[in-house]
Task: inverse folding
């Protein structure tokens, strides 16, 4: 366990000094700052006002940016470290492979989740200072969603980094994975599938197997519990899970996907050439 | 102590190691030489448990792959190319010391002996150090613990003459209880450090020979050199070896570490047409170095 924490700490220090981390912080901190600057908390859309309006917008933007950001930075730095000889040297030290791999994941998780969370926390703090009402239940659930999303894509990123032997291949693969998820994101596309005589249950199952769609639907469900904007798909989802059940599924499923991907990545890493 | 038995390694059907059988005993100092692509680095990576391979590699009967922490705790490794780590020097030393279960001060002490001012560089990112400083630090990390096997890839390539001499002294202090495997493209770089030479070519061992050298690793030689005339190129090379000009660029005096004699003579051989006289004499142990 000591080696795991040492590796995690090392990865955090390396990330804090990396350029990607600076850009990452600027992007998410900048989004919140811009949303405040444009007076989003004072505007009213579909009955939403105050911090809940800002949080809804923030989570939508985060869902667009975070997955590709996490995938690309993870595969770039992990595969890049391997190519540059960092693995050759650090893995010549007496550190266990499990401690190394999972320690790296823990360290990286801290560095990708904290800026997103701190930006949101900053928004809450500013709202409290300004006397704007804070929707705590929404804040807690969104935090959970972001945590699950970060873990999910980190796990997938680590799996890609393990399978790809070069930075270019890893980066290209990460982009393809993200693109594939994006293609299956829109339920309109799934509507076309239904038109093509694919059963609605299969189409919705495909959508619900896509972590990106799960996040998007869960974020929608917070201000549209009956998922009216999804049309007929909502019946399948709500019949299958119920409102509370789907909220829980949106947290558990991505975590399971991330954990499974990371576990497959670990066993591949353990059985292959390390540097 | 170290045993390679039928070790093979393939990269995309290309055989990089071809049935290596090799035994290395305690206290042996091996020069692992060969051209690019001979299989030296692959063999080292198999020894460090970093590559999967056919056959068996064992150190004291234990597999470096399956019993990583126990086996690698006894191996100090100095890579040829320093890794581009962004972490501060202090953290790298603490990390390595903590994993190896040793006191970081031991690494600091060795780095100081090699001429590194550790206090001044503790907070500096490792990748911002000069090539020589990185090399000294990696040597300090490898030697500042109870390693029974030292695996070094061109370890002295970036060191200045003084640091090279101290490095040889540090190795000399561990001759009795340490096995060393030193990899290089060129035998003259490492020959004086070793007592056995193994040459590899296309994944096979093509030469396994002993080296006779009565000169100690820590020995020093006084060298007097007289040239037929002053010459800027050889003067620059001699200043690089910390030689002093005794008379108008014609008479030179300096000291050369015993293990560096061959390398020094190699350098001089480039200017052999200018050499009128050369005298080398080993400095007795009880005479303080100048």
Result:
């Amino acid at each position: 366990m000591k080696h795991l924490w040492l590796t995690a700490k090392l990865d955090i220090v390396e990330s804090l000094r990396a350029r990607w981390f600076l850009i990452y912080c600027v992007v998410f901190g900048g989004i919140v700052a811009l949303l405040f600057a444009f007076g989003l908390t004072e505007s009213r859309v579909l009955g939403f006002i105050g911090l809940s309006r800002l949080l809804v917008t923030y989570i939508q933007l985060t869902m667009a940016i975070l997955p590709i950001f996490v995938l690309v930075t993870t595969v770039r730095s992990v595969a890049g470290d391997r190519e540059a000889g960092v693995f050759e040297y650090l893995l010549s030290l007496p550190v266990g492979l499990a401690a190394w791999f999972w320690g790296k994941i823990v360290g990286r998780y801290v560095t990708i989740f904290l800026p997103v969370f701190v930006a949101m926390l900053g928004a809450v703090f500013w709202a409290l200072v300004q006397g704007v009402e804070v929707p705590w239940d929404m804040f807690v659930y969104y935090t959970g969603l972001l945590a699950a999303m970060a873990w999910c894509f980190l796990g997938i990123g680590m799996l890609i980094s393990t399978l790809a032997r070069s930075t270019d291949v890893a980066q290209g693969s990460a982009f393809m994975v993200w693109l594939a998820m994006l293609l299956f994101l829109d339920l309109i596309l799934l509507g076309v599938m239904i038109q093509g005589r694919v059963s609605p249950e299969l189409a919705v199952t495909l959508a619900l197997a896509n972590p990106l769609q799960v996040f998007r639907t869960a974020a929608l469900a917070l201000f549209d519990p009956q998922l009216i904007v999804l049309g007929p798909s909502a019946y399948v989802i709500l019949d299958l899970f119920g409102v509370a059940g789907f909220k829980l599924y949106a947290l558990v499923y991505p975590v399971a996907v991330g954990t499974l991907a990371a576990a497959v990545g670990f066993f591949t890493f353990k059985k292959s050439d390390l540097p | 102590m170290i045993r390679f038995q039928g070790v093979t390694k393939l990269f995309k059907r290309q055989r990089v190691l071809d049935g290596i059988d090799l035994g290395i005993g305690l206290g042996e100092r091996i020069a692992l030489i060969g051209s690019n692509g001979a299989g030296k680095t692959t063999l080292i990576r198999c020894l460090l448990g970093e590559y999967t391979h056919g056959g068996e590699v064992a150190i004291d009967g234990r597999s470096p792959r399956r019993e990583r922490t126990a086996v690698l705790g006894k191996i100090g490794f100095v890579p040829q190319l320093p890794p581009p780590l962004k972490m501060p020097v202090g953290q790298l030393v603490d990390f390595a010391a903590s994993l190896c279960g040793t006191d970081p001060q031991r690494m600091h002490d060795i780095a100081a002996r090699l001429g590194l001012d550790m206090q001044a560089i503790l907070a500096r990112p490792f990748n911002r150090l000069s090539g020589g400083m990185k090399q000294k630090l990696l040597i300090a990390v490898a030697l500042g613990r109870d390693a029974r096997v030292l695996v070094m890839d061109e370890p002295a390539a970036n060191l200045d003459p003084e640091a090279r001499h101290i490095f040889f002294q540090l190795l000399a202090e561990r001759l009795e209880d340490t096995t060393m495997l030193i990899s290089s493209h060129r035998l003259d770089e490492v020959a004086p450090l070793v007592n056995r030479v193994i040459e590899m070519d296309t994944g096979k061992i093509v030469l396994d020979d002993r080296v006779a050298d009565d000169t100690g690793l820590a020995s020093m030689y006084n060298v007097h050199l007289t040239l037929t005339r002053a010459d800027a190129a050889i003067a620059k090379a001699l200043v690089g070896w910390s030689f002093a000009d005794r008379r108008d660029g014609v008479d030179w005096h300096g000291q050369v570490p015993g293990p560096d004699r061959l390398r020094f003579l190699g350098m001089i051989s480039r200017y052999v047409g200018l050499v009128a006289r050369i005298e080398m004499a080993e400095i007795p142990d009880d005479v303080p170095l100048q």
Q: What stands out?
A: The longest helix of chain B spans residues 131-143. The CA atoms of residues 115 and 254 of chain B lie 20 Å apart. The first strand of chain B starts at residue 2 and ends at 11. The two ends of chain B are 40 Å apart (CA to CA).
